[in-house]
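hey so i finaly got around to running the thing on DNA (Cytosine-5)-methyltransferase 3A from Symbiodinium microadriaticum. pasting the sequence first so u can double check i didnt mess up the copy paste, my clipboard has been acting weird all day
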Amino acid sequence: MDGPVLVLSLFDGIGALLIALLALGASFAAMCWETDPDAAYVAVQLRRGHFTVILVAGGSPCQDVSPLHSGRPGLASARSQLFRAVPDIADQCRQVVKELHLSIPVFAMLENVAGCPPEFLQAASAALNGPPVQVSAASFGWTRRKRLFWCSNGHRSAQDVSQPKLPPNVTSQACAGGWRLGWQGKWPWPPSISFADDFKPRFDPVANAKASDDGPCFPVFSRAFQPPPDHGPRQDPVVMRRFREHGQWFPLFNYEEHALLWKKDQWRVPNSSERAQIMGIPPAALKWAPRTPRSETQAEQVRCSLIGNSFHVPSCMLALIMLFQLCPQASAIPPAAYVGLEKHIRQNAQVYWVDTQMRGRQLAYKVQAICKAMHPDVAAVAKAKAITLDEVRDGLAAGPFTKPQLDSLFGPGNWIPMRRFMLLQAIYTISPDFVAAACKFCIGLLQDLEDDLPMWAEPHVGTEDMKAAYRQLPNDPDEQTGLFIAFYDPNDHQVKYVHLRAHPFGLSAAVLNFNRVPCLSTAVVRRLAAVATCNYFDDFGVLDFVCARGSGVSFLREAHNLMGLVLDAVKQGPMATQRHFLGILLDLTAALDKQILRINLKVGLREALRADIQVMLDQDQCTAAEAAKLRGRLTWAACGMFGRCGRAGQAALVQRQYRDSDAKLSDELRASLRFFQSLVQVVEPRTVFLGPRALPPLIVYTDASWELQEKVLQCLQDRKTQIMPLEALAILQCFVVFGSRFTGRDILLFVDNQAVCAGVAKGACSSADCARIISACHLLWAKMGCRVWIEWIPSDDNPSDGLSRAGLQDPWTVSQNWWMADFPCVPWAQLQLLDLLLVPDVSEGEKGSETV
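ok and heres what it spat out for the 3d tokens, dont ask me to read them lol
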């Protein structure tokens, strides 16, 4: 597709179809219909020209055709006939398009259960030009949900796609009844779920994803309802007892052992947040449901029901991929502006290995030899062995060898092994500034030419990742005696070795040498193709206009191909308005019309952080290693989302990481964990403005005097003068009292205390009382979405200096003829308990000047 899609979503639920389209990187506008008031309210809260495709889609009610309904009336019921709305509306759209003399294709997609009766299957297939695509959600590893998707363009169905182009790890089988699609890969999708309170399922989703057949997993998610359903193992008294203990929310099969979450002997059903993650729906999508909860139990039942009625997003994505292959085919790369460009590159490309100009650097230091066998119970020895043998099979290493064999080849003491160990980690770094800066510059250039930004200038982001990056670069033959990997073989109970032919992990020289290659490829693509791209180690990001049709990414791939390097097709992120890049979700959907970029944490990370912190609070302990890992994750998340407010609470984690010997939670650490647990849940995505701001910055001056009630001073630390915390408190009071006036604005804040300026700029302070006040300021600013620049000003030049001494009777202030009024500060006792995430409204009497 070359442009945005107009989506007509029937039986819309909570908008899972739109989530699937976003995940595929499609640009679209949607019109949605839903009768359930709670589902409709959620969908409205989630949604904030010219179209090249019209998509009419929906999952019609399945209650009367589902195998869960023993007395199903089938196609005879009026509710079952609602499926005809999808092809009928699609036909009406085609007629309108024809009358307008447009050449816009109209697609229709209908979803329903795989166990529907034959008469429904035949009627739907006749109305939508062919048999459906069948997708089994169980193949993704987590839950059963076998669904049928009828895909049609009015003339053909997905059955007519003879050789579908599908993502890696997607299996396909052509049958008389339509295509059957599934997932078979190394990891399930999603790769992990954040289960609360350390509960886990008693099945292996990884094994399910690797298997060719559907394995044991969660049963199909359904609505939460009473009385008890008519399906399930009634003969099992244990299942029946669990069913009754839980209040008969779900069908009986939801209380079998594999359908539950377990922590030792404790059990529970998955909650709505966990169900949403399993279905591929962001849990935050449910935070508006229900509209008017009567109790938390009722609210949870509504949320579970909404998930039960929704699409399984990965299955829906596969169906959409099949559907859009009915589009007329067009070249992915526009005609070359310079016909000799690619030919010139190929003629001058090196025919020998590119690394001949880069290698030769000696090892920065010697790796100490492992002279003793590893203990048999080293963690993850089986996985380390499997990975090592995979590298031998792929030709990246030679072996395995025993120590006597290597001694005979190189001589005793003439070779050095490195220990193979498993390190579970992620790279916590971000680079959203690349996209923001490039978008801002391009939009500025276009706005200089015309006021309205053209549709072809919609910015898209794509990502690429090198496959087994280090292992693609060969080693210097002169250094082979230091490039052996030692691993423990649990079957033979001895240490074995392999000779590594490619770059090893953990050596500083390998890091330096490797980085030269992606830096070179980035420079080549920038200079030869004028593509806005950047790299962080082996990760690449590309920014381009929609009119480029992915040519920038194609040039990046070609450059790596010419260098003899392989990019990972599984990790590829095609050009789209939303993409994950280095753990950050970059959202450019509003870049064209509103000139804003939203930066958010990747889907599921908020829930994962909150769940990990809850485990520490429940267990009342946090080790130094756990504190270090959590601190790294939180620091990275704060840089991408929360800004300086993420500095609060770090002191307790640093104390535990470097100084404490006891793992038990202290009061300070417990408070810090609770702060971060709330922070990751409530602070909104960061907004970067790509165009000029409509309103000028607000100018704020604050000052404080040391004339307070004793109960306020008693809350501060003992010091000779309390002016510093009071100056900081004046800033906080200003933004609390006039909160709604500052929301979403740029603010120039002038303060005549240098220590306070420095503390606010850093977001931290060594004094605990000042640190709490400063952290509260940043937390409030993050919630209000305002950008604050703080600047020191001499007291003599501070307009608020006289007001802090003489109030509204200050002679100089009176002489300015400003509108002035007294506004009471929030009492100290209330301020200490104030929910700073709720920005209060300005009082009704406020008006006039914006400088108070």
